[in-house]
Design goal:
Elements lengths: L16 H17 L26 E6 L5 E3 L2 E3 L4 H11 L7 E6 L5 H14 L4 E3 L7
Parallel strand pairs: 1-4, 4-5
Antiparallel strand pairs: 1-2, 2-3
Length: 139
């Protein structure tokens, strides 16, 4: 015998409308904050140097990079691979100098990584002044 009436139980229901609203707001936020760039169509025109020749500095370390990525420090060829040995060589040459300037003379066809390796070596050696040499265009 049942004395209590049977309680009506509602079936649980999953409501997708709030979920869709939240996803739509996230999608709109991402669309508004995203920047679209076309890196494949980037046109770069490199400038040419038309400046006069700078006077020679007393406290400078000349690092040359040829088209094969070989290094020459102060006009002496060195067989160094990596930024750590190059940094040690630069420290050795700049030990007697007061705040030397690293002058990078890179061939136009030198690998980009070779130039970055010289810059990293200068940073590791503690030299913050770096400059590049250019060649004036023929007139």
């Amino acid at each position: 015998m049942r004395l209590r009436p049977r309680a009506y139980r509602e079936e649980p229901e999953i409501n997708f409308i709030p979920l869709i609203d939240v996803l739509l707001v996230i999608l709109i936020f991402l669309m508004v904050t995203t920047t679209y760039s076309r890196y494949a169509e980037l046109q770069i025109n490199l400038p040419t140097a038309e400046a006069e020749r700078q006077p020679d500095r007393i406290d400078q370390i000349d690092v040359a990079v040829d088209s094969q990525g070989n290094y020459s420090v102060n006009k002496k060829a060195v067989l160094l691979t990596g930024s750590a040995p190059l940094s040690q060589e630069m420290r050795r040459l700049g030990a007697a100098m007061k705040d030397p300037v690293v002058v990078i003379s890179a061939d136009a066809r030198a690998p980009h990584q070779s130039v970055i390796t010289v810059m990293e070596a200068a940073r590791m050696a503690g030299y913050g002044k770096i400059t590049f040499t250019t060649q004036a265009t023929p007139k």
